[in-house]
């Protein structure tokens, strides 16, 4: 299985991402836009698979969840109520090491050093983390809107709508995947920290007093999700926030950290947001956002457990964790380096490659027939350019779990094909009639 990667390996991954069409620098023909990235033909598939796997785990396979897709632009009062308008409008310095931001007047005895880790600080700036825009033709404060810095608020403002529409009882949660924007001072580390990114967020509403228990349950579930999809447990850890690093709304928070090549860093935060947001929105909107519990005949504002992950960070972790360079036998009898992504079959951009042994005109029609059959069930790619060995390597490099090879024996003797496994490189011969079932079984897509 894959090694634990060093910083130097990141260059190889970034280069693979560009070369094979996972991730491109944004607007590259104009010299790029700092820390902004576009997902290419394979990257878009991988990222969609990450989102689908999340949606399936947290919405479709649970009875206590519903989905939502709220707008990026929201009423400006949302950000006043949530505390973002005020919290992010101060002059701030940011620590170049741990990225915590501080008001210059809160720095204490040495104003040049981070009070948390001792790292050096950026110059102070009047810094609003939220990206601003204007609705309509007039650019004044009355028409000012923000691009949401988190998807969570779209869920809170729809809490009553969803309760009424779905007749849900607590405990239940709302899940959402969508873009968020933050004017980060120090973006970087490829797609790890960008100013435009995607979040996968759950707001799980519970009766106050049951919040601690639900917090622990979600922590366990979310950690499991990453390992089920192939991240090695050694590369994951849970880090509890110290009281002084808690966000203004949080009673407690745990991060799921991944061991990135540059060190441990947050993949997902799981916070207990208490009743802070609903209470704030109730106050600022004048709407009653309390929940009536008809079992206990009580009215209360629910507490909220929030597992909040980044799609881009998860995608990057899956790429890094699956990347490996292995010694493999070469055609000339020597060995060569085989670059392989051991991606979970649910995440792999291509599930099956169909490869005729060569471009021989007798093989190609049969291989095309196999391709047409398999692509009805699985995400499939056909490739007949260059030698079969090279084509296997190309598929290994993009993480395709299985390759089906059509050879002369297929057309002359047994109407069977070879299935080659990416990880073991073993090959088995399978009759054409059972091919799709055999592929589906090997892919183990249900986990
Ligand atoms: P960090 O401390 O790394 O800045 P955060 O604690 O501010 O992250 P949250 O507000 O908890 O992040 O957001 C939830 C998730 O959204 C994070 O765990 C991360 O996966 C993702 N995320 C947050 N900011 C960014 C960003 N600038 N680029 C990419 N993903 C991000």
Please tell me about this protein's structure.
With about 450 residues, this protein is α+β, with helices and mostly antiparallel strands. Helices cover about 30% and strands about 30% of the residues. The strands form seven sheets. The protein has a seven-stranded mixed β-sheet with strand order 3-9-10-16-13-12-11, with helices on both faces. It has a five-stranded mixed β-sheet with strand order 20-19-21-22-23, sandwiched between helices. The mean pLDDT is about 95. Adenosine-5'-triphosphate binds next to strand 10, strand 13, strand 16 and helix 9.
Entry summary:
This protein is an alpha+beta fold.
Residues in helix, %: 25-40%
Per CATH, the superfamily of the largest domain is: Bira Bifunctional Protein, Domain 2
Rg from C-alpha positions? 25 Å
Give the CATH topology of the largest domain. Answer: BirA Bifunctional Protein, domain 2
Overall mean pLDDT stands at 93
Describe the secondary-structure layout.
Blueprint: H1 7-20, E1 23-25, E2 37-39, H2 41-60, E3 65-68, H3 77-82, H4 84-87, E4 91-94, E5 101-102, E6 125-126, E7 131-134, E8 144-147, H5 152-156, H6 159-166, E9 172-181, E10 196-206, H7 211-228, E11 236-240, E12 252-260, E13 263-274, H8 276-285, E14 291-293, E15 298-300, E16 303-310, H9 311-322, E17 323-329, E18 335-341, E19 352-356, H10 363-374, E20 380-382, H11 388-398, E21 402-406, H12 408-414, E22 416-421, E23 427-431, H13 435-443
Helix pairs in contact: 2-9
The structure holds adenosine-5'-triphosphate.
């Amino acid at each position: 299985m894959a090694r634990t990667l060093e910083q130097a390996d990141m260059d190889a991954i970034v280069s693979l991402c560009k070369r094979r069409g996972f991730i491109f620098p944004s607007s590259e023909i104009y010299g790029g836009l700092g820390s902004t990235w576009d997902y290419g033909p394979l990257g878009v598939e991988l990222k969609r698979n990450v989102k689908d796997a999340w949606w399936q785990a947290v919405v479709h396979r649970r009875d206590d969840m519903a989905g939502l897709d709220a707008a990026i632009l929201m009423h400006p009062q949302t950000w006043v109520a949530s505390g973002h308008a005020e919290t992010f409008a101060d002059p701030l310095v940011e620590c170049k090491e741990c990225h915590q931001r501080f008001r210059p007047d809160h720095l204490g005895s040495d104003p040049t050093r981070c009070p948390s880790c001792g790292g050096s600080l950026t110059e102070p700036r009047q810094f609003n983390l939220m990206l601003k825009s204007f609705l309509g033709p007039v650019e004044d404060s009355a028409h000012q809107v923000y691009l949401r810095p988190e998807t969570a608020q779209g869920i809170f403002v729809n809490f009553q709508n969803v309760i009424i529409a779905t007749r849900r009882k607590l405990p239940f949660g709302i899940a959402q995947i969508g873009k968020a924007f933050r004017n980060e001072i120090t973006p970087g580390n490829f797609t790890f920290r960008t100013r435009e990114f995607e979040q996968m967020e759950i707001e799980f509403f519970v009766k106050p007093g049951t919040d601690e228990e639900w917090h622990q349950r979600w922590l366990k579930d979310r950690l499991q999700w990453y390992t089920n999809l192939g991240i090695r447990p050694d590369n994951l850890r849970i880090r509890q926030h110290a009281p002084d690093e808690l966000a203004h709304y949080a009673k407690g928070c745990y991060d799921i950290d991944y061991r990135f090549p540059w060190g441990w860093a947050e993949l997902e935060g799981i916070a207990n947001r208490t009743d802070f947001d609903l209470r704030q929105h109730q106050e600022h909107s004048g709407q009653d956002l309390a929940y009536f519990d008809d079992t206990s005949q009580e009215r209360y504002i629910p507490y909220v457990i929030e597992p909040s992950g980044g799609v881009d960070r998860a995608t990057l972790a899956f790429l890094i964790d699956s990347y490996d360079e292995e010694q493999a036998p070469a055609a000339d009898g020597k060995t060569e380096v085989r670059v392989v992504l051991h991606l979970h079959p649910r995440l792999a951009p291509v599930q099956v490659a169909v490869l005729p042994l060569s471009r021989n005109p007798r093989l190609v029609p049969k291989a095309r027939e196999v391709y047409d059959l398999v692509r009805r069930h699985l995400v499939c790619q056909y490739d007949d350019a260059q030698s079969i060995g090279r084509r296997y390597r190309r598929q290994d490099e993009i993480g395709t779990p299985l390759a089906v090879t059509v050879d002369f024996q297929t057309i002359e003797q047994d109407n069977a094909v070879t299935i080659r496994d990416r990880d073991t490189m073993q090959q088995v011969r399978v009759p054409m009639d059972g091919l799709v079932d055999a592929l589906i079984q090997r892919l183990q897509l249900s986990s």
